[in-house]
Amino acid sequence: MNLHAFTVTWMTDIKAKIYGVISLGCDKNRVDSEKLLALIRSNGCKISNDIEEVNVLVVNTCAFLGSARKEAVETVIDCARYRAEGKLEKIVVTGCLPQAFISEVFPALTEADVFLGINDYDDFFKALQASYDGGRVDMVGKGGCAFSSARVLTTPCHYAYLKIADGCNNCCTYCLIPKIRGRYKSYPVEDLVKEAAELGEISELILVAQDVTRYGEDIYGERKLVKLIKALSALSNIRSIRLLYCYPDAIDDGLIEELRDNPKLIKYIDIPLQHSEDRVLKLMNRKGSRAEYLALLEKLKRRVPGIAVRSTFICGFPTETEEESENLANFLRSAGLTNCGFFAYSREPRTGAYNLKGQIPTREKNKRVKRMYAVQSEISRGYLNSFIGKTLRVLCDGIDYERGCFYGRAYFQAPEIDGKVYFNCPDAVQGEYYDVQITSADSYDLFGRTAGYCEE
Ligand code: SF4
Fold first, then answer.
1. Is CATH 1.20.1070.10 the right assignment for the domain spanning 159-385?
2. SS3 sequence, 97-137?
3. pTM exceeding the 0.90 threshold for the entire prediction
Protein backbone atom coordinates (compact mmCIF):
# COMPACT_ATOMS: atom_id res chain seq x y z
CA MET A 1 0.00 0.00 0.00
CA ASN A 2 1.63 3.27 -1.11
CA LEU A 3 0.51 6.26 0.83
CA HIS A 4 1.42 9.75 -0.28
CA ALA A 5 -0.34 12.58 1.43
CA PHE A 6 -0.14 16.31 1.02
CA THR A 7 -1.95 19.55 1.62
CA VAL A 8 -3.67 21.43 -1.19
CA THR A 9 -4.51 25.06 -1.50
CA TRP A 10 -7.54 25.31 -3.73
CA MET A 11 -11.14 26.45 -3.49
CA THR A 12 -12.33 27.81 -0.16
CA ASP A 13 -13.83 24.63 1.20
CA ILE A 14 -10.99 22.30 0.37
CA LYS A 15 -7.82 24.34 0.43
CA ALA A 16 -6.82 23.36 3.94
CA LYS A 17 -7.49 19.66 3.54
CA ILE A 18 -4.75 17.08 3.74
CA TYR A 19 -4.61 14.51 0.94
CA GLY A 20 -3.34 10.97 0.66
CA VAL A 21 -3.09 8.53 -2.25
CA ILE A 22 -3.05 4.75 -2.09
CA SER A 23 -1.91 3.25 -5.38
CA LEU A 24 -3.00 -0.33 -6.07
CA GLY A 25 -2.15 -2.60 -8.98
CA CYS A 26 0.54 -2.38 -11.58
CA ASP A 27 3.36 0.01 -12.38
CA LYS A 28 1.20 1.66 -15.08
CA ASN A 29 -1.35 2.52 -12.41
CA ARG A 30 1.50 3.79 -10.26
CA VAL A 31 2.42 6.27 -13.00
CA ASP A 32 -1.20 7.50 -13.05
CA SER A 33 -1.02 7.99 -9.27
CA GLU A 34 2.23 9.90 -9.61
CA LYS A 35 0.64 12.20 -12.19
CA LEU A 36 -2.36 12.78 -9.95
CA LEU A 37 -0.01 13.66 -7.09
CA ALA A 38 1.76 16.13 -9.36
CA LEU A 39 -1.54 17.63 -10.49
CA ILE A 40 -2.55 18.33 -6.92
CA ARG A 41 0.90 19.55 -5.94
CA SER A 42 0.86 21.92 -8.90
CA ASN A 43 -2.08 23.58 -7.19
CA GLY A 44 0.05 24.47 -4.19
CA CYS A 45 0.14 21.28 -2.14
CA LYS A 46 2.20 20.52 0.90
CA ILE A 47 3.09 16.88 1.53
CA SER A 48 2.43 14.74 4.58
CA ASN A 49 2.69 10.97 4.94
CA ASP A 50 0.42 10.13 7.82
CA ILE A 51 -2.90 8.47 6.99
CA GLU A 52 -4.25 9.55 10.35
CA GLU A 53 -3.88 13.16 9.28
CA VAL A 54 -5.50 12.69 5.88
CA ASN A 55 -8.79 14.47 5.18
CA VAL A 56 -9.14 13.30 1.57
CA LEU A 57 -7.93 9.85 0.61
CA VAL A 58 -7.61 8.79 -3.01
CA VAL A 59 -7.59 5.04 -3.72
CA ASN A 60 -6.34 4.46 -7.26
CA THR A 61 -7.62 1.00 -8.08
CA CYS A 62 -6.87 -1.99 -10.29
CA ALA A 63 -9.65 -4.17 -11.72
CA PHE A 64 -7.73 -6.52 -13.98
CA LEU A 65 -8.61 -9.60 -11.94
CA GLY A 66 -11.32 -10.50 -9.44
CA SER A 67 -8.65 -10.58 -6.73
CA ALA A 68 -7.60 -7.01 -7.61
CA ARG A 69 -11.21 -5.79 -7.46
CA LYS A 70 -11.61 -7.47 -4.09
CA GLU A 71 -8.45 -5.82 -2.83
CA ALA A 72 -9.68 -2.42 -4.06
CA VAL A 73 -13.05 -2.73 -2.31
CA GLU A 74 -11.46 -4.03 0.90
CA THR A 75 -8.95 -1.18 0.88
CA VAL A 76 -11.73 1.41 0.64
CA ILE A 77 -13.75 -0.26 3.40
CA ASP A 78 -10.66 -0.64 5.56
CA CYS A 79 -9.68 3.01 5.12
CA ALA A 80 -13.19 4.22 5.89
CA ARG A 81 -12.57 3.47 9.57
CA TYR A 82 -10.30 6.52 9.63
CA ARG A 83 -13.48 8.60 9.42
CA ALA A 84 -14.06 7.67 13.02
CA GLU A 85 -10.49 7.15 14.17
CA GLY A 86 -8.67 9.84 12.23
CA LYS A 87 -9.46 12.99 10.33
CA LEU A 88 -10.71 11.43 7.13
CA GLU A 89 -13.61 13.26 5.50
CA LYS A 90 -13.73 12.05 1.88
CA ILE A 91 -12.69 8.95 -0.04
CA VAL A 92 -12.10 9.31 -3.78
CA VAL A 93 -11.96 6.11 -5.82
CA THR A 94 -10.14 6.41 -9.14
CA GLY A 95 -8.79 4.16 -11.87
CA CYS A 96 -9.83 0.85 -13.35
CA LEU A 97 -12.49 -0.26 -10.84
CA PRO A 98 -14.86 2.69 -11.31
CA GLN A 99 -13.94 2.89 -15.00
CA ALA A 100 -15.23 -0.61 -15.70
CA PHE A 101 -17.63 -1.34 -12.86
CA ILE A 102 -19.20 1.97 -11.88
CA SER A 103 -22.77 0.69 -12.09
CA GLU A 104 -21.90 -1.99 -9.53
CA VAL A 105 -19.57 -0.07 -7.22
CA PHE A 106 -21.38 3.26 -6.98
CA PRO A 107 -24.47 1.84 -5.22
CA ALA A 108 -22.53 -0.80 -3.28
CA LEU A 109 -19.40 1.00 -2.11
CA THR A 110 -21.11 3.66 -0.03
CA GLU A 111 -17.90 4.31 1.93
CA ALA A 112 -16.60 6.23 -1.11
CA ASP A 113 -17.70 9.79 -1.88
CA VAL A 114 -16.25 10.44 -5.35
CA PHE A 115 -15.63 8.16 -8.32
CA LEU A 116 -13.37 9.12 -11.23
CA GLY A 117 -12.43 6.97 -14.23
CA ILE A 118 -9.04 6.63 -15.89
CA ASN A 119 -9.53 9.75 -18.01
CA ASP A 120 -11.19 12.08 -15.54
CA TYR A 121 -8.27 13.43 -13.51
CA ASP A 122 -8.60 16.98 -14.82
CA ASP A 123 -11.85 17.18 -12.87
CA PHE A 124 -10.46 15.89 -9.61
CA PHE A 125 -11.00 19.12 -7.67
CA LYS A 126 -14.33 19.88 -9.32
CA ALA A 127 -15.66 16.45 -8.32
CA LEU A 128 -14.29 16.78 -4.82
CA GLN A 129 -15.79 20.22 -4.39
CA ALA A 130 -19.14 18.86 -5.59
CA SER A 131 -18.91 16.17 -2.95
CA TYR A 132 -18.16 18.69 -0.21
CA ASP A 133 -21.10 20.71 -1.47
CA GLY A 134 -23.29 17.71 -0.84
CA GLY A 135 -23.62 14.06 -1.73
CA ARG A 136 -21.74 11.39 -3.57
CA VAL A 137 -20.31 12.12 -7.02
CA ASP A 138 -19.95 9.86 -10.03
CA MET A 139 -17.71 11.59 -12.59
CA VAL A 140 -16.67 8.48 -14.48
CA GLY A 141 -16.37 9.21 -18.18
CA LYS A 142 -17.41 12.83 -17.73
CA GLY A 143 -14.05 14.51 -17.28
CA GLY A 144 -10.84 14.97 -19.23
CA CYS A 145 -7.25 13.95 -18.79
CA ALA A 146 -4.76 16.15 -20.64
CA PHE A 147 -1.29 14.64 -20.96
CA SER A 148 0.94 15.93 -18.20
CA SER A 149 4.64 15.30 -17.91
CA ALA A 150 4.79 16.25 -14.22
CA ARG A 151 5.29 13.45 -11.72
CA VAL A 152 5.78 12.97 -8.00
CA LEU A 153 7.81 9.78 -7.86
CA THR A 154 6.65 7.07 -5.48
CA THR A 155 9.52 4.73 -6.36
CA PRO A 156 12.96 5.15 -4.78
CA CYS A 157 14.15 8.29 -6.55
CA HIS A 158 16.88 6.54 -8.60
CA TYR A 159 14.46 4.57 -10.77
CA ALA A 160 11.18 5.44 -12.42
CA TYR A 161 8.58 3.94 -14.71
CA LEU A 162 7.68 5.71 -17.93
CA LYS A 163 4.24 4.78 -19.29
CA ILE A 164 4.62 5.17 -23.03
CA ALA A 165 1.09 4.15 -24.05
CA ASP A 166 -2.23 3.16 -22.56
CA GLY A 167 -4.89 0.67 -23.65
CA CYS A 168 -4.47 -2.37 -25.84
CA ASN A 169 -5.62 -3.55 -29.27
CA ASN A 170 -4.81 -7.19 -28.62
CA CYS A 171 -7.85 -9.16 -27.60
CA CYS A 172 -6.48 -11.94 -25.44
CA THR A 173 -9.53 -13.90 -24.40
CA TYR A 174 -8.65 -13.95 -20.68
CA CYS A 175 -7.98 -10.23 -20.39
CA LEU A 176 -10.24 -7.36 -19.33
CA ILE A 177 -7.73 -4.59 -20.03
CA PRO A 178 -8.98 -3.56 -23.50
CA LYS A 179 -12.50 -3.24 -22.04
CA ILE A 180 -11.20 -1.08 -19.19
CA ARG A 181 -8.46 0.96 -20.84
CA GLY A 182 -9.76 1.07 -24.42
CA ARG A 183 -7.77 1.12 -27.66
CA TYR A 184 -4.00 1.45 -27.71
CA LYS A 185 -2.96 5.08 -27.36
CA SER A 186 0.69 6.10 -27.60
CA TYR A 187 1.98 9.31 -26.11
CA PRO A 188 4.08 11.40 -28.52
CA VAL A 189 7.87 10.97 -28.41
CA GLU A 190 8.45 14.64 -27.53
CA ASP A 191 6.04 14.46 -24.56
CA LEU A 192 7.72 11.33 -23.20
CA VAL A 193 11.19 12.80 -23.66
CA LYS A 194 10.08 15.91 -21.75
CA GLU A 195 8.61 13.75 -18.99
CA ALA A 196 11.80 11.70 -18.68
CA ALA A 197 13.98 14.81 -18.75
CA GLU A 198 12.03 16.27 -15.82
CA LEU A 199 12.47 13.17 -13.63
CA GLY A 200 15.89 14.22 -12.37
CA GLU A 201 18.89 11.90 -12.15
CA ILE A 202 17.54 8.43 -12.97
CA SER A 203 19.75 5.34 -12.87
CA GLU A 204 17.08 3.15 -14.46
CA LEU A 205 14.11 4.24 -16.54
CA ILE A 206 11.63 1.41 -17.06
CA LEU A 207 9.40 1.65 -20.12
CA VAL A 208 5.92 0.23 -19.57
CA ALA A 209 2.61 -0.06 -21.44
CA GLN A 210 0.17 -2.90 -21.94
CA ASP A 211 2.24 -3.71 -25.03
CA VAL A 212 5.47 -1.72 -25.29
CA THR A 213 6.41 -3.09 -28.70
CA ARG A 214 3.42 -1.54 -30.51
CA TYR A 215 4.45 1.94 -29.47
CA GLY A 216 3.72 4.50 -32.21
CA GLU A 217 1.50 2.41 -34.48
CA ASP A 218 -1.59 4.46 -33.67
CA ILE A 219 -0.14 7.98 -33.92
CA TYR A 220 2.73 7.54 -36.41
CA GLY A 221 1.33 4.75 -38.57
CA GLU A 222 4.32 2.55 -37.75
CA ARG A 223 6.17 1.23 -34.71
CA LYS A 224 8.50 3.79 -33.20
CA LEU A 225 9.80 2.09 -30.08
CA VAL A 226 13.39 2.17 -31.28
CA LYS A 227 13.10 5.86 -32.15
CA LEU A 228 11.75 6.54 -28.67
CA ILE A 229 14.55 4.52 -27.02
CA LYS A 230 17.15 6.47 -29.00
CA ALA A 231 15.59 9.80 -28.00
CA LEU A 232 15.46 8.80 -24.32
CA SER A 233 19.02 7.49 -24.47
CA ALA A 234 20.20 10.94 -25.56
CA LEU A 235 19.07 12.42 -22.23
CA SER A 236 21.99 13.00 -19.89
CA ASN A 237 19.88 12.41 -16.74
CA ILE A 238 18.94 8.87 -17.82
CA ARG A 239 21.69 6.33 -17.16
CA SER A 240 19.92 3.18 -18.36
CA ILE A 241 16.63 2.01 -19.84
CA ARG A 242 14.77 -1.26 -19.26
CA LEU A 243 11.93 -2.76 -21.32
CA LEU A 244 8.92 -4.51 -19.82
CA TYR A 245 5.83 -6.04 -21.50
CA CYS A 246 7.02 -6.77 -25.04
CA TYR A 247 4.64 -8.75 -27.24
CA PRO A 248 6.53 -11.63 -28.93
CA ASP A 249 5.37 -11.16 -32.52
CA ALA A 250 6.39 -7.48 -32.51
CA ILE A 251 10.02 -7.97 -31.47
CA ASP A 252 11.67 -7.13 -34.77
CA ASP A 253 15.28 -6.96 -35.96
CA GLY A 254 15.47 -3.22 -35.30
CA LEU A 255 14.64 -3.72 -31.63
CA ILE A 256 17.05 -6.64 -31.33
CA GLU A 257 19.85 -4.52 -32.84
CA GLU A 258 19.05 -1.74 -30.40
CA LEU A 259 19.28 -4.21 -27.52
CA ARG A 260 22.64 -5.33 -28.85
CA ASP A 261 24.15 -1.94 -29.68
CA ASN A 262 22.66 0.69 -27.37
CA PRO A 263 24.85 0.83 -24.24
CA LYS A 264 22.06 2.51 -22.25
CA LEU A 265 19.48 -0.15 -23.09
CA ILE A 266 19.73 -2.94 -20.51
CA LYS A 267 20.22 -6.36 -22.08
CA TYR A 268 16.99 -7.57 -20.57
CA ILE A 269 13.59 -8.06 -22.11
CA ASP A 270 10.26 -9.06 -20.61
CA ILE A 271 8.11 -11.06 -23.03
CA PRO A 272 4.90 -12.36 -21.46
CA LEU A 273 4.38 -15.52 -23.54
CA GLN A 274 1.39 -16.82 -21.51
CA HIS A 275 1.69 -20.39 -22.82
CA SER A 276 3.76 -22.63 -25.07
CA GLU A 277 1.15 -24.85 -26.67
CA ASP A 278 -0.36 -23.83 -30.01
CA ARG A 279 -3.89 -25.00 -29.23
CA VAL A 280 -3.98 -23.09 -25.93
CA LEU A 281 -2.39 -19.99 -27.49
CA LYS A 282 -5.07 -20.01 -30.16
CA LEU A 283 -7.82 -20.26 -27.54
CA MET A 284 -6.16 -17.35 -25.75
CA ASN A 285 -6.13 -15.42 -29.06
CA ARG A 286 -2.38 -14.98 -28.75
CA LYS A 287 -0.27 -14.63 -31.85
CA GLY A 288 2.61 -17.04 -32.37
CA SER A 289 3.36 -20.66 -31.67
CA ARG A 290 5.70 -22.80 -29.62
CA ALA A 291 8.11 -23.09 -32.55
CA GLU A 292 8.07 -19.34 -33.20
CA TYR A 293 8.64 -18.54 -29.53
CA LEU A 294 11.59 -20.90 -29.30
CA ALA A 295 13.01 -19.44 -32.53
CA LEU A 296 12.63 -15.91 -31.18
CA LEU A 297 14.38 -16.79 -27.92
CA GLU A 298 17.19 -18.48 -29.80
CA LYS A 299 17.58 -15.45 -32.07
CA LEU A 300 17.64 -13.05 -29.13
CA LYS A 301 20.33 -15.08 -27.37
CA ARG A 302 22.38 -15.42 -30.55
CA ARG A 303 22.22 -11.77 -31.53
CA VAL A 304 22.44 -10.25 -28.06
CA PRO A 305 24.95 -12.31 -26.09
CA GLY A 306 24.08 -12.51 -22.41
CA ILE A 307 20.56 -11.16 -22.83
CA ALA A 308 18.20 -11.95 -19.95
CA VAL A 309 14.63 -12.86 -20.87
CA ARG A 310 11.77 -12.76 -18.40
CA SER A 311 8.30 -14.13 -19.09
CA THR A 312 4.94 -14.87 -17.50
CA PHE A 313 2.61 -17.81 -18.07
CA ILE A 314 -0.99 -18.68 -17.27
CA CYS A 315 -1.61 -22.14 -15.82
CA GLY A 316 -4.94 -23.94 -16.01
CA PHE A 317 -6.48 -22.01 -18.88
CA PRO A 318 -9.85 -23.63 -19.73
CA THR A 319 -9.40 -27.02 -21.41
CA GLU A 320 -5.63 -27.12 -20.77
CA THR A 321 -4.81 -30.80 -20.48
CA GLU A 322 -2.28 -32.35 -18.14
CA GLU A 323 -0.22 -33.18 -21.20
CA GLU A 324 -0.24 -29.54 -22.33
CA SER A 325 0.77 -28.47 -18.85
CA GLU A 326 3.66 -30.93 -18.98
CA ASN A 327 4.56 -29.62 -22.43
CA LEU A 328 4.79 -26.14 -20.92
CA ALA A 329 7.22 -27.51 -18.35
CA ASN A 330 9.30 -28.98 -21.18
CA PHE A 331 9.15 -25.67 -23.01
CA LEU A 332 10.63 -23.99 -19.94
CA ARG A 333 13.48 -26.49 -19.97
CA SER A 334 14.21 -25.68 -23.64
CA ALA A 335 13.65 -21.93 -23.43
CA GLY A 336 16.21 -21.18 -20.72
CA LEU A 337 14.35 -18.12 -19.46
CA THR A 338 16.05 -16.10 -16.77
CA ASN A 339 12.99 -15.26 -14.66
CA CYS A 340 9.36 -16.33 -14.86
CA GLY A 341 6.07 -15.63 -13.17
CA PHE A 342 3.21 -18.16 -13.21
CA PHE A 343 -0.42 -17.35 -12.55
CA ALA A 344 -3.49 -19.51 -12.15
CA TYR A 345 -6.04 -18.62 -14.83
CA SER A 346 -8.63 -16.24 -13.41
CA ARG A 347 -12.13 -16.49 -14.90
CA GLU A 348 -13.09 -12.90 -15.57
CA PRO A 349 -16.63 -11.82 -16.57
CA ARG A 350 -16.90 -9.98 -19.91
CA THR A 351 -13.91 -11.85 -21.36
CA GLY A 352 -14.07 -14.35 -24.19
CA ALA A 353 -12.71 -17.21 -22.11
CA TYR A 354 -15.32 -16.78 -19.39
CA ASN A 355 -17.86 -18.96 -21.18
CA LEU A 356 -15.43 -21.59 -22.39
CA LYS A 357 -16.34 -25.09 -21.38
CA GLY A 358 -13.64 -27.07 -19.61
CA GLN A 359 -12.84 -24.69 -16.75
CA ILE A 360 -10.17 -26.23 -14.55
CA PRO A 361 -10.81 -26.55 -10.79
CA THR A 362 -8.89 -24.02 -8.66
CA ARG A 363 -6.99 -26.74 -6.83
CA GLU A 364 -5.71 -28.18 -10.09
CA LYS A 365 -4.76 -24.73 -11.42
CA ASN A 366 -2.79 -24.02 -8.28
CA LYS A 367 -1.12 -27.43 -8.51
CA ARG A 368 0.02 -26.61 -12.05
CA VAL A 369 1.34 -23.20 -10.95
CA LYS A 370 3.33 -24.87 -8.19
CA ARG A 371 4.73 -27.41 -10.62
CA MET A 372 5.88 -24.71 -13.05
CA TYR A 373 7.57 -22.80 -10.27
CA ALA A 374 9.39 -25.97 -9.24
CA VAL A 375 10.62 -26.53 -12.81
CA GLN A 376 11.66 -22.91 -13.36
CA SER A 377 13.27 -22.69 -9.97
CA GLU A 378 15.82 -25.34 -10.99
CA ILE A 379 16.53 -23.47 -14.23
CA SER A 380 16.90 -20.15 -12.42
CA ARG A 381 19.14 -21.74 -9.79
CA GLY A 382 21.46 -23.03 -12.51
CA TYR A 383 21.51 -19.61 -14.16
CA LEU A 384 22.28 -17.79 -10.90
CA ASN A 385 24.89 -20.36 -9.86
CA SER A 386 26.78 -19.59 -13.06
CA PHE A 387 27.65 -16.18 -11.59
CA ILE A 388 29.34 -17.55 -8.48
CA GLY A 389 32.97 -16.47 -8.51
CA LYS A 390 32.24 -13.74 -11.05
CA THR A 391 31.84 -9.99 -10.64
CA LEU A 392 28.53 -8.33 -11.50
CA ARG A 393 27.73 -4.65 -11.85
CA VAL A 394 24.96 -4.02 -9.33
CA LEU A 395 22.69 -1.00 -8.93
CA CYS A 396 22.31 -0.33 -5.21
CA ASP A 397 18.63 -0.06 -4.24
CA GLY A 398 19.14 0.38 -0.50
CA ILE A 399 19.94 -1.25 2.82
CA ASP A 400 18.32 -4.43 4.12
CA TYR A 401 18.40 -3.78 7.86
CA GLU A 402 17.26 -7.28 8.78
CA ARG A 403 20.06 -8.92 6.83
CA GLY A 404 22.53 -6.20 7.73
CA CYS A 405 23.72 -5.62 4.18
CA PHE A 406 23.01 -3.64 1.03
CA TYR A 407 20.80 -4.91 -1.76
CA GLY A 408 20.53 -4.09 -5.40
CA ARG A 409 20.02 -5.54 -8.83
CA ALA A 410 22.12 -6.86 -11.66
CA TYR A 411 21.05 -6.22 -15.26
CA PHE A 412 18.89 -9.37 -15.30
CA GLN A 413 16.79 -8.24 -12.34
CA ALA A 414 13.94 -5.74 -12.69
CA PRO A 415 12.63 -4.12 -9.51
CA GLU A 416 9.71 -5.72 -7.66
CA ILE A 417 9.33 -8.71 -9.99
CA ASP A 418 12.77 -10.37 -10.06
CA GLY A 419 15.31 -11.36 -7.43
CA LYS A 420 18.00 -9.22 -5.82
CA VAL A 421 21.71 -9.16 -5.13
CA TYR A 422 22.47 -8.85 -1.42
CA PHE A 423 25.96 -7.57 -0.85
CA ASN A 424 28.37 -6.38 1.78
CA CYS A 425 30.27 -3.22 1.10
CA PRO A 426 32.11 -0.69 3.31
CA ASP A 427 29.68 1.96 2.10
CA ALA A 428 27.19 2.15 -0.73
CA VAL A 429 24.89 4.84 -2.03
CA GLN A 430 21.39 4.19 -3.34
CA GLY A 431 21.28 4.69 -7.10
CA GLU A 432 25.00 4.04 -7.66
CA TYR A 433 26.59 1.00 -9.32
CA TYR A 434 29.03 -1.36 -7.58
CA ASP A 435 31.15 -4.26 -8.77
CA VAL A 436 30.01 -7.16 -6.61
CA GLN A 437 31.88 -10.46 -6.39
CA ILE A 438 29.25 -13.17 -6.22
CA THR A 439 29.87 -15.75 -3.53
CA SER A 440 26.61 -17.73 -3.40
CA ALA A 441 23.13 -18.05 -4.85
CA ASP A 442 19.76 -19.66 -4.28
CA SER A 443 17.04 -20.07 -6.89
CA TYR A 444 16.02 -16.41 -6.67
CA ASP A 445 18.75 -14.18 -5.21
CA LEU A 446 22.49 -13.72 -5.32
CA PHE A 447 24.87 -12.89 -2.49
CA GLY A 448 28.29 -11.27 -2.59
CA ARG A 449 30.62 -8.47 -1.58
CA THR A 450 32.52 -5.64 -3.13
CA ALA A 451 36.28 -5.82 -3.47
CA GLY A 452 36.90 -3.41 -0.60
CA TYR A 453 34.83 -5.35 1.93
CA CYS A 454 36.62 -7.39 4.60
CA GLU A 455 34.74 -9.89 6.79
CA GLU A 456 35.40 -9.20 10.46
S1 SF4 B 1 -1.72 -7.93 -24.74
FE2 SF4 B 1 -3.40 -9.29 -24.11
S3 SF4 B 1 -2.95 -9.65 -21.92
FE4 SF4 B 1 -1.81 -7.81 -22.50
S5 SF4 B 1 -3.17 -6.10 -21.99
FE6 SF4 B 1 -3.49 -6.61 -24.17
S7 SF4 B 1 -5.25 -8.01 -24.13
FE8 SF4 B 1 -4.43 -7.94 -22.04
1. no
2. HHHHHHHHHHHHCCCCCEECCCCCHHHHHHHHHHHHHCCCE
3. yes
